[in-house]
Amino acid sequence: MGYRVKLTAAVVRNLAKMPASVGTRILDEVEALAQEPDPTRHVKKLKGGSQNPFYSLRVGKYRAILNICDDVLLIVVVEVGHRSRVYRKH
After folding, report:
1. Domains parsed from the chain with CATH numbers
2. Average pLDDT, the chain
3. Measured between alpha carbons, how far is 20 from 29 in angstroms, rounded to an integer?
4. SUPFAM superfamilies annotated for this entry (predicted)?
5. pTM for the whole thing?
């Protein structure tokens, strides 16, 4: 049983602005991550000690910032973008 994936409204807008091949690749990587028994093994934990930490998924020069909720088997994609800009909020 895999994790469910939820995209925020900001992510949907950002994916629409990206080249189609990049957006598709990011979504494919997130879906593949959702099928893993422990998705935190394949992502980098971002610094900052909040109770629900953020993780970064690398897809070429782009990054997806994720919140992985193990208790409800949910991956929330909170931000996507080029690596030079995506970390500014998180």
Report:
1. 4-84 (3.30.2310.20)
2. 93
3. 14
4. RelE-like
5. 0.89
